[in-house]
Amino acid sequence: MVKLGQKLGVDYRWEGDTLHFQRPGVDGRIALAPGQVHVAAKLGLLFSALKGTVESELLRVLRERLP
Q1: Domain range holding 33?
Q2: Which of 13, 18, 21, 61 could form a disulfide with 31 if both were Cys (CB 3.0 to 4.6 A apart)?
Q3: Residues linked to residue 33 through DSSP beta bridges, in sequence order
Q4: What CA–CA distances, in Å, run from 19 to 10, 31, 62?
Q5: Residue 6: which CATH number?
């Protein structure tokens, strides 16, 4: 996780089962629950133009990695 955070320039912290992350243009969280993953993010102006691409890529990665 440290390498990914450094590579993407993301600050993050865990609070229980929730990962909070932030970088310029993005502020969000990933909450883990038994059998569930909840992702929420506020996108700044630049990233909001890529919202569909971000959602599609996130869903693709989750489908590949979660049973």
Answers
A1: 2-65
A2: 18
A3: 36
A4: 12, 6, 15
A5: 3.30.457
Copy the structure tokens of residue 29.
């969280």
Contacts (Cβ under 8 Å, ≥6 apart) of 62: 37
pLDDT computed for residue 1 by the predictor = 62
User: Which residue is listed with tokens 């990695």?
Assistant: 65
Give per-residue pLDDT as tens, 34-47: 989 999 999 999 88
Q: How many domains does the chain have?
A: 1
Q: Which helix (H) or strand (E) holds 31?
A: strand 26-33
At 51, list the tokens: 């919202």
Amino acid 47: pLDDT: 87
Give me the residues paired with residue 37 across strands. Answer: 32
